[in-house]
Amino acid sequence: MQTLVYFSNDGIQVLQGIIKKGHLNISNFKTLPVEAGALINGVITNEEAIKQTITEALKESPHLFKNMKLVIDSSLIATKNVEVPQLKPKELAIVAATEFEDTAGNYDALVVDYAHIPGPAGNNLFCCGVEKRVLESYVTLFASLKIQIKSIDVGLNTLIQYVTATKDYKGMTFALNILDGKNLISVLFENGLYIFSNRSRLLSERGTDAFADELSGKLSSLIQFNKSQKSEHTLNMSLYAGLDEFELNGLRALNFDPDLNLFNIPQTPNIKNGFVMDESFDFGSFIYPIAGFFAGIKPINLFAAFKKSNVEKKELPFEYKALILPVALILICLIVFGVFFGLKYSAQKKLEDMNAYISDESNQAQYMQAKQLTDEVSAIQAEVTNVEAINAAITSNPKLTSDKLAHMATLGNGVIAVNAMDYDGTTGAINISAIANNEKEAAQYIGRLKDTQYFTQIDYTGYSQVSSSSTSTTTTGTTTGSTSTSVSFSAIAYLKAGGTQ
Question: What pLDDT, on the 0 to 100 scale, is given for residue 270?
Answer without folding.
Answer: 95
